[in-house]
Amino acid sequence: MKRLLTLALALVMALMVAVPTLAQGDLSGDLEIFSWWAGDEGPALEALLAKYAELYPDVEVNNATVTGGSGVNARAVLKTRMLGGDPPDSFQVHAGQELIGTWVVADRMEDLTFLYEEEGWMDVFPQGLLDLLSTDEGIWSVPVNIHRSNVMWYIPANLEQWGVTVPTTWAEFLEACPTLQEQGVTPLAVGENWTVNHLWESVVLSELGVEGWNTLWAGEKVWTDDDVVAAWETFGSILDCTNVDEDAATLSWQQATDKLVAGEVAFNIMGDWAAGYMVTTLGLEPGEGFGWAASPGTEGVFMMLSDSFGLPVGAPNRDNTIAWLRLLGSQEGQDIFNPLKGSIAARLDSDLGLYNTYLQDAAADWQSSEVVGSLAHGAVANERFSGEFGTVMEIFLTSRNATAAANAAQVVCIQAGICQ
User: Fold this and answer.
1) Which of 108, 180, 230, 241 has the lowest tally of Cβ within 10 angstroms?
2) Which residues contact 159 (CB under 8 A, 6 or more apart)?
3) Backbone angles phi, psi at 153, to 5 degrees
4) Pick among 3.40.50.2000, 3.30.160.20, 3.30.1050.10, 3.40.190.10: CATH of 151-297+381-415
């Protein structure tokens, strides 16, 4: 951890020289930042908080974190606080329907259009991202990063030793599966429940394509269509090449990544926070210590998610929160945070010289690929659907019945107000 903090402070110092400093203000009092960034994901947030403390030294910052991958635990705590009329000043949320379909529709968030206009953010964030953050009534959060969900990770030297290549389709993966298993290698790692959902979305994207994926979430495609059922069947075949029935439920995403690095598994489908973990915590060099590719069948498609922060109605320290949001949306703030987090800036004018080889590659794909939103990370469906989808997945894992899972998903889609 000492090494991580040193790296974070060095990056902050470099950025102080490289980019203009944000204006300081006469603020005092408190600021509570609620997130799930702790442990290996903590240094990036700590670097941002250090910058905020430099700008506003009289503000006492409470870094309130609730651990748990993808925010599964934090969202439960947040729900209790928001419903109880005790909101934090600002909270981490996945941009898109996770916020809009949960707290914006309940009139619990302030419109941030004024801040976008004051800061000129309409010109530096991509229009597609602005659309994701907005409704007809306003813009509801400030994105601090862009992550890619559909990434397949591997260790080049291990694949060479095992005599397999990176699959470009799931059919190719399934062909390589027996070769790996015969050598005592698990072909694909999964961990706790949400990581299985994360794998599922990459599989279904590959099977349905961009149009099919998007119409599914627009309520224009029925979950019981033949191609959706077939995608569940392909997913089941892929699960047979994983550790899902062994130790998966006990593993965090970091521990699943550790298995990859240790040579116990060949591949892992995980968001590019895995790159941040392998670089910052494990000390691996992108392109040498680990490799990456779009998940099979999704070349040219960027399944995105974005961590963002908003302004709850009744935030105890509104002025301090607005100053926090200004930092998050600035070029300086984004280039402090993202190289440490293992993500790319949401802005189009970031200094790519500060980013490693993987992140530069991701930034190029962000600007050249077709972009779709993630289910597992809150972009395309509201919290009600996302929460109930866990039950759908349990039905499938227990029964391996694709038709039953598709039927259950259709019911949940109707209940969540997505399907008609």
Assistant:
1) 230
2) 165, 166, 266
3) -105, 150
4) 3.40.190.10
Domain ranges of the chain: 2-146+305-370, 151-297+381-415
3-state secondary structure of 171: helix
Burial of 126 (0-12, 13-18, 19+ CB in 10 A): middle
Tell me if 267 sits within 8 A of 189, measured CB to CB.
Answer: yes
Q: What is the rounded CA–CA span in Å between residue 132 and residue 135?
A: 8
For 201-221, what is each residue's pLDDT tens digit? Answer: 999 999 999 999 999 999 999
Closest CA to 262 of 286, 290, 227: 290
pLDDT in tens, 51-70: 999 999 999 999 998 876 65
Q: Evaluate whether 147 touches 307 at the Cβ level (below 8 Å).
A: yes
**Given the DSSP bridges, would you call strands 301-305 and 265-269 parallel, antiparallel or unpaired?**
unpaired
Residue 370's H or E segment, with its range, is strand 370-373
DSSP 8-state code for residue 129: H
- The DSSP bridge partners found for residue 109 are 312
DSSP 150: -
- The CB density around residue 313, as the number of other CB atoms within 10 Å, is 15
Q: Share the mean pLDDT of the chain.
A: 92
- Which numeric CATH code is attached to 2-146+305-370? 3.40.190.10
Q: pLDDT of 373-408, one tens digit each?
A: 999 998 999 889 998 999 999 999 999 999 999 999
Give the closest residue to 154 by CA, choosing from 248, 237, 257. Answer: 257
Give the full edge-to-edge strand order of the sheet including 142-143.
59-65, 29-35, 90-94, 307-309, 142-143
Backbone angles phi, psi at 85, to 5 degrees: 75, 25
Do the Cβ atoms of 277 and 199 come closer than 8 Å? Answer: no
Determine the pLDDT at residue 72. 73
Helix 2-18, helix 42-55: angle, nearest 10: 50
Cα 143 from Cα 145, distance rounded (Å): 6
Q: Are 218 and 282 in contact (CB under 8 A)?
A: no
Q: In what order do the strands lie in the sheet with 186-189?
A: 186-189, 265-269, 151-154, 291-294
Query: Do residues 58 and 37 make contact, with C-beta atoms less than 8 angstroms apart?
Result: no
Q: What six digits make up the tokens of 382?
A: 């509201």
